[in-house]
Amino acid sequence: VPELPEVETLRADLEREVVGQGVVAASATGLRTFRRYGLPPGGGACLAGRSVLAVERRGKYLVVRLSGPLVVVVHLGMSGQLRAVEADAPPIAHTHAAVSLTSGRQVRFVDPRTFGEIFVSAGDAPDGVPLELAHLGPDPLSAGFGRAELAGLLAARRTRLKPLLLDQRVVAGIGNLYADEVLWAARLAPDRPAGSLGVAAVARLHQSLREVLGAAIAYRGSSLADAQYRDLAGRVGGYQARHAAYGREGQPCQRCGRAIRRRHADGRSTFYCTRCQR
Ligand SMILES: [Zn+2]
Predict the structure, then answer these.
(1) What's the pLDDT at 133?
(2) Residue 155: how many CA atoms within 13 Å on its side-chain side?
(3) Are the C-beta atoms of residues 259 and 251 closer than 8 Å to each other?
(4) How far is the CA of 274 from the centre of ligand 1 (A)?
(5) How far apart are CA 107 and CA 55, in angstroms?
(6) Residues in Cβ contact with 22 at an 8 Å cutoff, skipping those fewer than 6 apart
(7) What pLDDT is attached to residue 257?
(8) Which region, left, alpha or beta, applies to residue 123 given φ > 0 means left and ψ of -120 to 50 means alpha?
(9) Ligand 1 mean position to 190 CA, how many Å?
(10) Can you state the angle between helices 199-218 and 147-154, rounded to 10 degrees?
(11) Mean pLDDT for the chain?
């Protein structure tokens, strides 16, 4: 499932590919992709003739701004991919939408499991579309996200650290994989109550958020065994080889040597070290 590092990698790729380009044509064939807010009036034709101004990221969402103004929001869901190819390249299976650019290139939304979604909204404020964008918490890599901000989010909460990190309304962009990696790096147990962290532990968590997510972006994200995450050129990421906790059940902790444990709860697995994560 793409999380902040994978979506940020795609954002940077997409920015280089599409900003400054004009839209020649657009098509939308996968109606499930548009299931919640429907196709824009006029369908894909409403994008034609517009130019692409910017590609932004909010949590796990991509926000593409076009002249008009018009905003296209893309959420990759479980298995969604964006792929840039020459406009006359062979079809890619499970393509649900495509945008042809003045460069002669085409960006395709490919999604075998159709959990991904696209929203198109007139105007320049994407916050209403979809609604959950308006409720996203701060981005852990934003300049304004300091130790004090993190301490404020944790203070007086009884929620355990892992579900708190997964709550997009508290902090945006983290999913199951990076929550485990960040908590391992911070030497914090996933079920530790958020409000129980002292100053030093908050500082470790803040530093780990920055370092783990930053390194994962530098390695262009994680592609797991299903290899479903691909960048805009269709290449897998490189961070999966550097995971310290996620997917390492039974292997020795790289810090203390005890076997990494896997626990199932709430329909997901948590990987952690019972010795050095407290
Ligand atoms: Zn350990």
Answers:
(1) 86
(2) 7
(3) yes
(4) 7
(5) 13
(6) 49, 50, 51, 52, 101, 102
(7) 98
(8) left
(9) 13
(10) 110
(11) 94
